[in-house]
Write a structure and sequence with these properties.
alpha/beta, TIM Barrel, eight-stranded parallel beta sheet, 8 strands
């Protein structure tokens, strides 16, 4: 309870905005209702996996100035995926440098062992893989009880039906458009129909759909049409000459969906 209360205090200070803002495409008019997928202001989540870790604070400040909606943090254990990245101490440091929500993506085995640790470190959203937890519903419940939003990630070969019996336990479904483990991979286009199927399974619930892996500006509009609400992008943003402008360009590309 103490850890959960501590998170609540931090959340009040940060006041992260998880709401989805709706605008009419190409007009800048806000406040109306949606008239089909792709007409929401898509959230942009820069993935720090592609940032310069020697200047991580500056990199985050840059994308925050560019209008990023949240920061995506990839945690890898070298077992579930063939790579090692960062742990709780780095997330604690990131938390001190930004007011943006932190979506911490656990690409690790037995994620339930680490839920409380990462929420205490500053995760606002904690995303686990359906392929990594033997007791998935219990793990998702544990995340919510710790005070974070619960996310569920699906690898490219995992079918949408994997979410069917836990759809009421998730706040976010993260659809991998590459095989997880490394940045800079090519986008897998079969994600488009997969997103549409997931949207149907989720129905009118509040869970958001996020896409992670190889996302570039040319994918933004088709992803928005398919039903994606959050675009995670690493190399497309942090390897650009101006990461702040890359955030704006990705948002603009997503908003270019023709009006229906």
């Amino acid at each position: 309870m103490r850890a959960r209360d501590g998170w609540i205090v931090r959340a009040k200070l940060r006041e992260p905005d998880f709401g989805l803002r709706w605008v009419f495409a190409g007009s800048g008019f806000a406040g109306g209702g949606a008239f089909g997928y792709g007409h929401a202001v898509i959230k942009i989540a820069p993935s720090i996996l592609s940032a310069d870790f020697a200047a991580l604070g500056e990199a985050i400040a840059c994308v925050e100035a560019g209008g990023a909606d949240q920061i995506h943090v990839d945690v890898m254990d070298g077992h579930f995926v063939p790579n090692l990245t960062i742990g709780p101490p780095v997330i604690e440091s990131i938390r001190k440098r930004t007011r943006l929500p932190l979506d911490v993506h656990l690409m690790i085995e037995e994620p339930e062992r680490w839920v409380d640790t990462y929420v205490r470190a500053g995760a606002d959203m904690l995303t686990v893989h359906v392929e990594a937890s033997a007791h998935l519903q219990r793990c998702l419940t544990q995340i919510r009880e710790a005070g974070a939003r619960a996310g569920l990630a699906l690898n490219p070969a995992t079918p949408p039906s994997a979410i069917e019996y836990v759809r009421d336990d998730v706040d976010l479904v993260l659809v991998m458009s590459v095989n997880p483990g490394f940045g800079g991979q090519a986008f897998i286009p079969s994600v488009y129909p997969k997103i549409r199927q997931i949207k149907i399974l989720l129905g009118s619930g509040a869970a958001e759909v996020s896409v992670d892996g190889g996302v570039k500006s040319e994918h933004a509009a088709p992803l928005a049409v398919a039903g994606a609400q959050i675009l995670v992008a690493g190399s497309a943003i942090f390897e650009a000459p101006d990461p702040a402008e890359a955030v704006r360009a990705l948002r603009s590309a997503a908003a270019s969906v023709p009006r229906k």
